[in-house]
Amino acid sequence: MRAGDRLAPLEVPVTRTLIVAGAIASRDYQDVHHDPELARQKGAPDVFMNILTTNGLVGRYVTDHFGPMAVLRKVAIRLGAPNHPGDTMVLTGSVEEVHGDTAVVRVVGANGLGTHVTGTVTVTVPEAGR
Predict the structure, then answer these.
(1) CA-wise closest residue to 75 among 90, 93, 61, 55
(2) Per-residue pLDDT at 130 exceeds 50
(3) Are 103 and 97 in contact (CB under 8 A)?
(4) At residue 128, does pLDDT exceed 70?
(5) Per-residue pLDDT averaged across 72-96, rounded?
(6) Domain total of the chain
(7) The domain containing residue 101 runs over which residues?
């Protein structure tokens, strides 16, 4: 684990089921995450992914790379273009800094509309995981 290391890209198919299940799992019952007609009435072309689902996918991306012993210490993200059903989000990342067994990883997730998510993840990887 060194500064400059790149994580392999991860393609996430954005399905209606993923969007609705993520909203339900995180107890986010906002209609824009499960009701296409109400989402359209509010100006969106369809339902869209909530931030908690995106946060979980970003965390999964980092822990999949560093392994099952990795511990997320901090996830700081900002949303941009929405994730709608039928699109694909591609997550990419790079290690920005390393301090002992802890790294800060810059993550970007893009879809057909542009950048969906940007942020950093601080992760600790025990010595055995190096």
Answers:
(1) 55
(2) no
(3) yes
(4) no
(5) 98
(6) 1
(7) 6-129
pLDDT at residue 93, rounded to an integer: 98
Q: Are 110 and 89 in contact (CB under 8 A)?
A: yes
pTM score, two decimals?
A: 0.92
Quote the pLDDT of residue 14: 98
Q: Is the dihedral of CA 67, 13, 85, 106 positive or negative?
A: positive
Residue 59 belongs to what H/E stretch? helix 51-66
Give the E-state strand segments of 44-87 in sequence order.
71-79
Angle of CA points 42, 45, 47, to nearest 5°: 80
Task: Give a yes or no: residue 30 inside a domain.
Answer: yes
E strand map for the chain: 6-13, 71-79, 88-99, 102-111, 114-124
